Amino acid sequence: MVDSEPEAGGQFLRGRAKFEHRGVTHLKNTEAWLVEDRTLHLRGPKQLHFDALVIATGAYDRPLPFPGWDGPGVITAGAAQALAKQGVTLAERVIVAGTGPFLLPVATALLDLGATLVGVYEASSPTRWLRESKAVLANRHKIAELASYRKVLSHLETRTAVIAKHGDRVTVAKLDRHWRPVSHRTEHADLVCIGHGFLPRTDLVPNAKRTNDFLDVDERQQTSIPGVYAAGEVTGIGGADLAEAEGIIAGAAAAHQEPPARALEAVRKGRLFAQALARAHAIQPGWQTWLNPDTTVCRCEKVSLQDLSDATSMRELKLTSRVAMGRCQGRICARNAAELTGIPFDGQRRVIAVPIPLGELAALPEEPS
Amino acid sequence: MHPDVVVVGAGIIGAACAQALKARGLDVLVLDRHGPASGTSSAGEGNVLVSDKEPGPELDLALASRELWPDLGADAEWEEKGGLVVATTPEAAEPLKAFAAAQRAAGIDACELTPQEALSHEPHLNPDITAAVHYLQDAQLNPVKATKALLRGIRIINAEVSTTDGRSVTTSDGVISCGAVVNATGPWARNFGVNVLPRRGVVLVTTPIPGTIRHKVYDADYVGAVASGDADLQTSGVVESTQAGTVLIGSSRQRKGFDDTIESKVLKALARKAIALFPMLTDVPVMRAYGGFRPYAPDHLPIIGEDPRTPGLWHATGHEGAGVGLAPATGRLLAELLTGATPLVDPHPFRVDRPEVMV
C-alpha cells in the first residue's frame, strides 16, 4: 500500500484510521509518479512490480475563480477541513461557499473550532434533489448524515455564492438557476472557503478511459487498462461509504476473488447517489459572469481572463497564454480555462504525476525489470 | 470555394507555405484535423538553429530562414539567445573545433571559447568541459504564436484530408477542388506518398529557475545523434530556459511508429545528460514531460517540391527536428517554385524525386 500521507486515512480520516493488516506493507510518505507496464515508479527512486494495481488516489477541490479568489483569505474547502482536522484555528469570521454536501462537514468543523460562521452558501437549488427520489430512497442513510450537520444548516443559503472578495468585504450574490447573479449584498469575513465540486487525481493512468474526468470502471472496478483497478473518488464523487465498497470490490478482484455481494449492492446504490449528486450540483455556466477581464484564472502563471487567447485546443491555449503551465500543471485552472474559452477539455494528460528532481530520474535503474 | 492552393497541415511548415503563397497573391486555404500547431510544431522547443548543421543544402536553407524569422516572428517571443555547444570529453574537443571551423567558412558566426570563457557565459556549466563554441545566430521563438502569426488573415478549416489528386482534396467534409495542393502534414506525410517516418522525441520541463541558464546549451554529440539513422534510442544533452524561467531538457530520438508511451529509460537518459552539463540541475524538480513526432526523411533532408507522379501535388515535409528553424525559407522556396519565380536557394537537393523519398 503506497501512501503519500504519513498515516493511513487519506484526506477523509486524516490519520485517524487504525490501519494494520498482516501481509500488507504500508509505505508511508511515499509518492508514486509513473506507471510503466507492470511497474509502479515511486519517489526515491524505487520500483514496485505488480500483477494488479489499484488506483485509489482520490480527488481534490475545484475552485471557481472570482475577483479576489487569488488573494489572502481564500482557501479551498478541502484545505480548510484538513487544517481543521489538525486543530488549526484559521480565522474569526468564516464563509463556506460552493456546491455540494461536502460544504456542510467543513462548516461544522470550523464552527467546532470556535469560528463565527457568517454563512454557508450553496450555489445550486435544493429543489434539484426533488427529481432524484430514486437515489435518495436507495440511500436513506445519507439523510441521517445530514442531521449530524444540523448546527450549520441554519446558516445555509441556497442559490447563493461568493462572487467577489476585497479585503474582508465579501460580495455575496443570489443566483438564478444558471448561477448568474440576480442581486448581491456585502458580508464581512476574514476567510472564505470554496469548493465547487471535485476533480479526480488520475495522473498515474493518463491513457485510461474516462467520462467527465472520472475513470471508467467495470463491475469489478477494472479500468480500461487490464490489471489496473480504480476505487473511490477517482471513479466519481459519492461519499466515503461508496469509496469503501469500491475498495472492497477492487481489492477482491485484484486478488482474483469473488467480491462480497454486500459490497456490490452498496456500490449499486451508491452509484445512484453519486449520479444524482453530479446532476444536482452540476456546475452551471453562469459562474463565468462572476469574473472581470483582469480576474486571475491561473494563479501559478498569473494569467487573467483577458489573457486567454483565441485557440482551438488546450495545447494551443496553454502555449499562447501560459495558462495551466505553472507549478500546479493545470490541476486547479485548466478545467476553468477550458470552460471560459469554450475549448473542449481534453483531460490534461500529465505523464509525470508529481514533481520529481532530475537527480532521482538520473538514478533510475537501466531497465524496470 | 475554389482556392488557388490548399495547404494540408497547419503546423509551422504549412503556415509558412500558406503565408508565402498568400504574399504572392494566391488565394490559400489551410486544412488541419486539429488546428494550428497541434502536432509536431508545439511538441518541440521552438529552436531556430544554425549551430547543428554542417555546410550543405540544409545549412543554406537554415541561414535563409534565419534572415526571415526576425520580421516574421516579431510577435512570437523571438529571442536571439545564442547557442553554446560544449565538448564533454577530451576526444570530442577537436572534432567540435573542426566542425565550427567548417561552419565559419560557410558564413556561420561560430566563436571558439575557452572553458573559462564558456563558464563566464554560463556560470552553472560543468567546469570539466573540454571545448566550447558560441553560436550567436541561434535563436528561439514560441512555435504556436509563430504559427498563428504566419496564418494571420488566412482561412483555416478543421477537416481531415484522406486523399488528393493534386487538383482537389477529399476531406471529412467533402471534396474541395483547387489549383494545387501542398502536403505539409509533417510526420503523417507518408499518407500522401513520400517516405517520411515519425521519429519520437521527449522533452522534460523543470519548475521555474529564472536566470540560471542563459543560452541553448548542448553537448557536441548532439550533431551525431541527429545525423544517425538508427531506430534505437539516441539521447544527447540539450538544455535551455524559456522566458517563463522553466528549463527545457532534451533530446531523445527513437523510431517506434506513433507509440507515445513515456519510458523511464528515456527520462533517465535525458536527466543524466542534463546533469552532466549542469550539475546544479540535480535537485531541480521536473514538473512535466511532453513528447512528439519529428518528420524523419531517411536521407536527412527536407522534401520541398512538386511530386513528379502527381502534377499539382507539392510536398513540404521531412524537416525532422528543424522545422521551426527551416520554415520561412521552406515556405518561400515552395511558393517560388509553385509560381515559377527564381528560388532563393538551390531547390535540387530537396526535390521529391530522390530514391529514399519516393514510395
Largest sheet of chain B: 8 strands, mixed
* Number of H- or I-type helical stretches of chain B: 8
How many DSSP-defined strands of chain B? 19
| Helical run tally of chain A | 11
Query: Please, what is the average pLDDT of chain A?
Result: 92
Strand content of chain B: 25-35%
Spatial strand sequence of the major β-sheet of chain A: 6-13-7-8-9
Instruction: Please state the average pLDDT score of chain B.
Output: 95
Cα radius of gyration of chain A in angstroms: 21 Å
Strand content of chain A: 15-25%
Give an overview of the whole structure.
The complex is a heterodimer of chains A (369) and B (359). The model of chain A has no long low-confidence stretch (mean pLDDT 92). With 369 residues, chain A is of the alpha/beta class. Chain A has a five-stranded parallel β-sheet with strand order 6-13-7-8-9. Chain A has eleven helices and 20 strands. In chain A, β18 and β19 (303-304) form a beta hairpin. Chain A has helices spanning 10-13, 77-85, 103-112, 133-138, 140-147, 150-153, 240-254, 261-280, 314-321, 334-341, 358-362; strands at 32-36, 39-42, 46-49, 53-55, 59-61, 74-76, 93-99, 116-122, 156-158, 160-166, 169-175, 181-188, 191-196, 198-200, 210-211, 214-215, 228-230, 296-298, 303-304, 356-357. Chain B is an alpha/beta fold and 359 residues long. Chain B is built from eight helices and 19 strands. In chain B, the strands form four sheets. Chain B has an eight-stranded mixed β-sheet with strand order 5-6-4-14-15-16-13-17. Chain B has a six-stranded mixed β-sheet with strand order 8-2-1-12-19-18, covered by helices on one side. A three-stranded antiparallel β-sheet of chain B has the order 9-10-11, with no helix packed on it. In chain B, α1 runs parallel beside α5 and α1 packs parallel to α8 (323-339). In chain B, 55% of the residues are buried. Classes of the chains: A alpha/beta (369), B alpha/beta (359). Chains A and B meet through α9, β20 and α11 of A and α5, α7 and β17 of B. β20 of chain A pairs antiparallel with β17 (285-296) of chain B. Chain B: It holds the Pfam family DAO. Chain B: InterPro entries: FAD-dep_OxRdtase, FAD/NAD-bd_sf. Chain B: Keywords: Oxidoreductase. Chain B: This is FAD-binding oxidoreductase. Chain B: Residues 4-337 form the FAD dependent oxidoreductase domain.
